Amino acid sequence: MSDLLERLRERGWRLTAQRRVVAEVLDGDHVHYTADEVHARATERLPEISRATVYNTLGELVSLGEVLEVSTDGRAKRYDPNAHHDHQHLVCSRCGTIRDVHLHGDPLSALPEPERFGFQVSEVTVTYRGLCPTCAATS
Amino acid sequence: MSDLLERLRERGWRLTAQRRVVAEVLDGDHVHYTADEVHARATERLPEISRATVYNTLGELVSLGEVLEVSTDGRAKRYDPNAHHDHQHLVCSRCGTIRDVHLHGDPLSALPEPERFGFQVSEVTVTYRGLCPTCAATS
DNA sequence: TCCTACATTGGACATTGTCTAAGTCAAGAA
DNA sequence: TTCTTGACTTAGACAATGTCCAATGTAGGA
Q: Per the record's keyword annotation, is Transcription included, yes or no (chains A, B) (predicted)?
């Protein structure tokens, strides 16, 4: 993650305690947190950090391409720090947990030209849904 | 759409003016409306219909499998009446318009067994994103 | 026609996200 | 090192979307 901070500095980012903490939280686990979860965890290390700053910082990380924004259910967006590897998501339909997965082949090629309706298609996301082992065991 | 009302009656639905109007709105165009857009259009035909009823009815249609809920951007969910045909979505990243598209092959097969992490995978959604012809022309 | 369980209503409330004005501070300049 | 300045942060108001509840209304069976 120190690479991340380094990359950001090179792009003219002013390096503040708040931004460092947000970056560290994202780097922590392999879970994808919501903005509020990021805020809660950031607060543990830097109690006075504000919600607005967390939202700002996440938005900046997304537009710099360092983090991906994932909205799987129309509830809170989740933030995926694994932006530099091409991957898709596997979501538990009960608890909302997200895992990164890797696919065979390129999903873009599954969309035939006549089905593109003149769109300039630039991106494709594939989301698998099901019960995670934990939720399946307690159902 | 009268088939839809018929199917719902068979399942014990009480047929009210409000539910009929919501169903008609969904059946109208081939666009996928947000709940508030459905409410706005329903209000034109039945001015006293309440927001809560629109939300309730949409929720019921979704759990009956008659309508699909699509959340493409973490903003308002959109409702897709085309639930009985297997299809995926093409979304304009500028204006949010959604088109239904049909794919070659089964996207489920692109997820190798070791990438399933013990999940009982039951569903897959594929979303293509890009600029629609209109937005591309004015960019 | 009458009953009653189901449906609707309006408004309060919850969650998630955005905006702004005022204060603060990182980092380059001197 | 200290100064300066514009980028950054803050608190809280506000906006958008969605949920819940108690009171009221009504579809459809008896």
A: yes
